Amino acid sequence: MNLDKLASDLHSTAVEKGFWNYEQDFVFFAKQLAMVHSEVTEVLEALRKEKGEQQVVEELADILIRVLDLYQGLKDANVVSLSLHDILEEKANINKDRPKMHGVLG
User: Fold this and answer.
1) Is the residue at 16 inside a domain?
2) Digit-coded pLDDT (tens) for 47-74
3) CA–CA distance, 76 with 78 (Å, rounded to integer)
4) pTM of this prediction?
5) Looking at residue 84, which CATH number applies to its domain?
6) DSSP per-residue string spanning the chain
7) Domain for residue 106, yes or no?
8) Residue 103 falls within a domain, yes or no?
9) What is the pLDDT of residues 68-97, one digit of tens each?
């Protein structure tokens, strides 16, 4: 499935459920990013507390939903215009050619 289409669908649901009834400025987008971070923390907690694979995968899904929703919100606000789907493919191909750990301390 195309990520841009999925983002549009997920964002429509978020708008319908009232999550985008705010002035969409830097602070609003910062709060949306903080929500992504909170979902990452929930994955960590699910792993730490050994809540099982269902919970872990559900929390990972929540991260993707939040990121894709944010992307579409940024797109609708004319902050970004590029295709996330296309950029993800480009970045994946770049990563294939990078050296092992490419500068990350192990």
Assistant:
1) yes
2) 999 999 999 999 999 999 999 999 999 9
3) 5
4) 0.90
5) 1.10.287
6) --HHHHHHHHHHHHHHTTTT-S--SHHHHHHHHHHHHHHHHHHHHHHHTT--HHHHHHHHHHHHHHHHHHHHHHHHTTS--S-HHHHHHHHHHHHHTSPTTTT---
7) no
8) no
9) 999 999 999 999 999 999 999 999 999 998
